[in-house]
Each structure stands twice: as structure tokens, then as C-alpha cells.
Specification:
It is built from 14 helices and 13 strands. It has about 350 residues and is an alpha/beta fold. β4 and β5 form a beta hairpin.
Length: about 350
């Protein structure tokens, strides 16, 4: 288990995060919050779903993040005729050895880009379930471990329904967060024309971090402390989705775990070795909304899951420093965090 003193190395590794962030932002103009969320999911050992209309840079963001890190990258173009074995791999008979030899599929990479994931059949989509949750592939009775770090960055178009298969609840629940890039501002779009008009910025993008550096960052994020009050706040937010009248399916316990991990990564990106309620609150919409199913009445009233989560955030009490005296463990003193006084890491 990582100790407080060992996590001091996070101070030296924040430069790695800044290099990756600058590299990706050089390709994705005017979207720093989207880039930050992508890095948060990477350091929290999660998977990212990029959902938006065509042409706003979904695949560009995934490629820029992948190329900024010196690790193995595979891209899967999901199509209706894509087979599960194309993703996971297949065992082929070797006549010389007189035995079956496993040929790894495209999932065997550290960063896997799944383009237009909702174009594949549900059978092929389900091939990702084990890989995304357990970071392994089981075929023909044999289990094969996936490389580390491992992250799936998938894109999908929410408006085009022809030839698409909506992601089932179990598949959406595997993604830690969903992000929409949105249209750029006029200034950012004008700058994009100047920068991208003649060349593809991905052609000159070079790795600025190594896989072993990302593993160290992930280990440092695991050691970020979360006070009991912050944990309770995350549980309260998720529990509220299960009883909200506008939702027929609330968030799962996996969502609570993902929200906590993302909050720890957000704290590390902010230069802290302790998470705050703000970290949980700022990530709640991105982590929870894609897992929720609105009721038919809510859909008729044009109530989106994002609006419901925003309403839950407004209604759920935020823990304060005074709760420390009631045993919540959140406040300004050393005992509030269960160890030494918190210190900034940046």
C-alpha cells in the first residue's frame, strides 16, 4: 500500500500530466475541460465514452491522447459485420506444433480506440465487457491478461439511428465517464482553420510521456486520501438517482466506485493528495448521467439525465467542516484526514 511519504513523488510527476495536457490541447482547440476529463479518466483507470455529433473531433481527441503517450495503440472501426473474435482474438490450429495457437485481437493494446462503437452488433459489443471490467480476455477456456495501463476510448454518434445499435445498460456502465466535445467557439474555430487548414496536427504529434510514467501516476492517484464525509457525499448522490421519480433506472454501485476514483484523480490533477466534495460534485454529471434511464414521462417533458443529476446535486447537502465534530472526518485539522495535515503537491 502506498504511504503518504511515498506519494510525495506525485509532485515530480505532475510535469508529466502537464506535458500530455499541452500536447492534446494543441490538437483539440478551445476545449481544456474535455482534455482534463480525459486525463482524469486515464489516471483513474477508467474508460471514456465520447458522444457527440459528427465532425467535432471525437476521434481526433482519442487519437491525440493515444499518441501523446508512448504505449501500444490499436484502433477498432466498429461495423455491423465486425465479429467478437476480431476484438478479443481467436485460436488457430498450428499444423507444425499440432496445437492451437492464440492470435490476440485488437483489444490487446494499452489504449484501444473504438470508433463508432454503436455500429457493431450487441454480440460484438458484449466482447468488450470482460476486457473493460476485469482487464482480461477469456477464450477457449484460457484467460489472457491485458497490458497495463489499459484504457478504452470509444466514440459514438447520438443522433444518427440508421445502422446503429444502442449500447446496452451493462456496456454503458463499464464506461467511467461520458463527455461531449460540443462545437468550438468562433475564435477557437478560426484558430483551427489556421492551424489545421494545411496539415494534420496528428502527423507531428510525438509522445511526451511513457507508459511507465502513467503507471506511476496511477499508483499515486490510488493513494489520494478521501475523507469519510466525501465518501458519504458520493454515496448520497448516487443513492438519490435510485429513488428519483424521473428515473426508471438509477446508478449502480459501480458508478459510486467510479465517481470516487475519478474524484481522486481530479484531486491529483489539482495538485492535492486529498479529495474534496468539489471533486465529486464537478464530476457527478460526467460519471453518472450516461448510466441513467429517464421515465417515459420525463422523456415527454424533455428532461434529460444530465438535468436530473444537476437537480440532485442542488438538493444533496454538501458536507462542511463543522461535520468533523460529528464524526464525519472532514475539516481543517490533521485528524480530519486520518494522518498528517494535507499539503498541496503542485
Amino acid at each position: 500500500m502506498t504511504t503518504y511519504d511515498e506519494r510525495a513523488s506525485l509532485t515530480d510527476l505532475t510535469a508529466t500530466v502537464e506535458r500530455v495536457r499541452s500536447s492534446v490541447e494543441g490538437v483539440i482547440e478551445g476545449k481544456p475541460e474535455v482534455v482534463r476529463l480525459s486525463l482524469t479518466v486515464l489516471l483513474a483507470e477508467g474508460h471514456l465514452l465520447i458522444e457527440d455529433v459528427p465532425g467535432v473531433g471525437k476521434t481526433m481527441l482519442a487519437k491525440a491522447l493515444a499518441r501523446s503517450i508512448d504505449c501500444s495503440v490499436r484502433r477498432i472501426q466498429f461495423t455491423p459485420d465486425l465479429l467478437p473474435s476480431d476484438v478479443t482474438g481467436v485460436s488457430i490450429w498450428d499444423q507444425q506444433r499440432r496445437d492451437f495457437e492464440f492470435k490476440p485481437g485488437a483489444i490487446f493494446a494499452q489504449i484501444v480506440i473504438g470508433d463508432e462503437i454503436n455500429r457493431a452488433s450487441p454480440k460484438t459489443q458484449s466482447a468488450l465487457l470482460e476486457s473493460m471490467e476485469e482487464r482480461q480476455v477469456t477464450t477457449d477456456g484460457q484467460t489472457y491478461e491485458l497490458p497495463s495501463p489499459f484504457m478504452v476510448v470509444a466514440t459514438q454518434n447520438p443522433v444518427e439511428m440508421e445502422g446503429t445499435y444502442p449500447l446496452p445498460e451493462a456496456q454503458r456502465d463499464r464506461f467511467m465517464a461520458r463527455v461531449s466535445i460540443g462545437y468550438p467557439s468562433p475564435e477557437a474555430e478560426l484558430q483551427m482553420l489556421d492551424v489545421h487548414g494545411g496539415v494534420n496536427p496528428l502527423d507531428d504529434l510525438q509522445p511526451v510521456a511513457h507508459a511507465h510514467e502513467i503507471l506511476k501516476l496511477i499508483e499515486a492517484v490510488r493513494g489520494v486520501h478521501v475523507a469519510e464525509a466525501v465518501r458519504r457525499y458520493a454515496v448520497d448522490l448516487v443513492s438519490a438517482t435510485r429513488t428519483h421519480p424521473d428515473l426508471r433506472l438509477g446508478a449502480s454501485p459501480r458508478a459510486t466506485l467510479h465517481l470516487l476514483r475519478a474524484a481522486k484523480a481530479s484531486a491529483a490533477l489539482g495538485g492535492r493528495d486529498y479529495a474534496l466534495p468539489d471533486d465529486v460534485q464537478n464530476l457527478a454529471v460526467a460519471v453518472l448521467s450516461h448510466r441513467l434511464l429517464p421515465t417515459a414521462q420525463a422523456q415527454l417533458n424533455r428532461r434529460s439525465s444530465e438535468q436530473v443529476v444537476e437537480e440532485i446535486i442542488q438538493r444533496t447537502p454538501v458536507p462542511t467542516g463543522s461535520q468533523q465534530q460529528r464524526g464525519y472526518g472532514l475539516g481543517g485539522g490533521p485528524q480530519a484526514y486520518g494522518r498528517q495535515p494535507p499539503r498541496r503537491l503542485g
